[in-house]
Design goal:
By secondary structure, the chain is α+β, with helices and mostly antiparallel strands. The protein folds into three domains: 177 residues, Beta Barrel (Elongation Factor Tu (Ef-tu), domain 3), CATH 2.40.30.170; 51 residues, no CATH class; 124 residues. Helices cover 36% and strands 34% of the residues. The protein contains three helices and 21 strands. The protein is rod-shaped.
């Protein structure tokens, strides 16, 4: 009887390991062939934007974001105590100078205004009655003066007549003396009554002046009361956009409390936030292109804030002509500051995702124009559309400037028609 031979376990393990190595090698070969096939795929050149390196110039620019702000901002504070009765306009709406934003209520102010008006009417009526009484007193005194003038003239006539008759011994000397005494008496009384009339006239004028002063004070009190009453109605004060309403209906407010803010839309400026590292090239008067929502406007730098806050410097830009279409305060904008230019340098249209003063891997076409080879290019200063080439390209070289992020694993791109 034959006895089967036992197979060594060691030989069994070696055989399995050899099979595994063969399978791994086959997989690696297959993967390398697939990768080779993929990397050698031909890409239609029309899928890329290909531009040539040229000799030219580049405008140096600083880009910064910011917002539009109003040069005329009105902060509205309460000038009287009151309760917010109603809010007529919400923040964000356009307003005119006389637009009512909100209404306050204060019963005490309303009551004081009514009392002041009544006091003024009473005082005016009393003054009118008193003026009539003064006129009556003056007329009575004028009548007394007129009476004594007549008596004095009559006494003077008698003195003259008696004097002539005394010469003819028609009247006695005693009659002449009596006539002279009466004339002197009436003359003295007439002088006193005339003085009394003058004094009365002066007194009447003084009383009228005093009464008018009291009326003026009452008028001012009424005006003040009505002004306080009008202050309960909160108006915009200027044409513009309502920036903020800081209170709610039913809220109690005191004098000095902030109520709302209104910004004029007729005199807007752009506040750009320029990075501290870039502000050294920024100076007053430089041209700026401000964009928002596809719209553009030209301006100039009018102010550079002297201090740095949170790593940025605020730069004010005033518009040369019209502002941006649809511009309003707090609108987010982007500004491109023209800080200078470089000339007689190699330039290319600015590649996608490129940065100034950095090394960038670009695909440059070879002499056959059928392959694009990854090439390290040193970039210099740039503008929105153009950038300087410091090294890595020659004039006439063609380079892909569109997005090549999908080919980062390739060194060469085969191009086809």
């Amino acid at each position: 009887m034959d006895i089967p031979k036992k197979v060594s376990r060691r030989r069994e393990h070696v055989g399995k390991a050899a099979i595994g190595v063969l399978v791994a090698a086959a997989s690696l070969l297959a993967y390398s062939r697939v990768t080779s096939l993929i990397s050698s795929d031909v890409v239609d050149s029309s899928e890329f934007v290909i531009e040539s390196a040229e000799l030219g110039s580049v405008n140096r620019e600083v880009r910064a974001t910011g917002t539009l702000v109003s040069s005329d901002l009105r902060l509205i504070a309460a000038t009287v105590d009151g309760t917010v009765e109603s809010i007529s306009i919400d923040a964000g709406a356009n307003v005119a100078a006389d637009s009512v934003i909100l209404q306050l209520s204060n019963p005490t102010i309303a009551r004081d205004a009514d009392t002041a008006r009544i006091d003024l009417r009473v005082m005016e009526a009393q003054t009118a009655a008193h003026a009539k009484q003064l006129i009556a007193n003056q007329l009575a005194q004028e009548a007394i003066v007129a009476e004594y003038e007549a008596l004095h003239e009559n006494a003077l006539f008698r003195v003259n007549a008696n004097s002539m008759l005394a010469e003819d011994n028609i009247v006695s000397e005693l009659d002449v003396i009596e006539a002279e005494l009466r004339e002197r008496q009436y003359r003295t009384q007439l002088a006193l009554e005339r003085q009394r009339l003058e004094h009365l006239i002066d007194l009447n004028e003084s009383e009228n002046t005093a009464r008018q002063a009291e009326i003026d004070r009452a008028v001012r009190q009424v005006a003040l009361s009505e002004e306080l009453l009008d202050d309960l109605t909160i108006r915009a004060g200027i044409n513009g956009a309502l920036q903020e309403v800081a209170v709610e209906a039913g809220e109690q407010v005191s004098v000095g409390a902030f109520l709302a803010s209104v910004a004029s839309v007729d005199n807007l400026k752009a506040e750009l936030r320029v990075q501290e590292s870039q502000v050294y090239d920024v100076t007053l008067g430089q041209d700026v292109i401000v964009t928002a929502g596809g719209d553009k406007a030209r301006g100039r730098i009018t102010r550079i804030e002297p201090s740095v806050r949170d790593g940025v410097v605020i730069v004010d830009v005033g518009f040369e002509h019209d502002s941006l279409p649809g511009a309003r305060p707090d609108l987010r904008v982007e500004g491109v500051i023209q800080t200078g230019s470089v000339t007689d340098v190699i330039t290319i249209p600015r590649p996608v995702f490129s940065r100034e003063n950095s090394d960038s891997d670009l695909f440059v076409l070879d002499e056959t124009r059928s392959r694009a080879v990854r090439t390290q290019v040193r970039l210099g200063v740039g503008s929105v559309s153009t950038i300087e080439v410091v090294s890595g390209l020659n004039i006439g070289d063609q380079v892909i400037v569109s997005d090549t992020s999908g080919f980062q694993d390739r060194e060469i791109i085969e191009l086809g028609d």
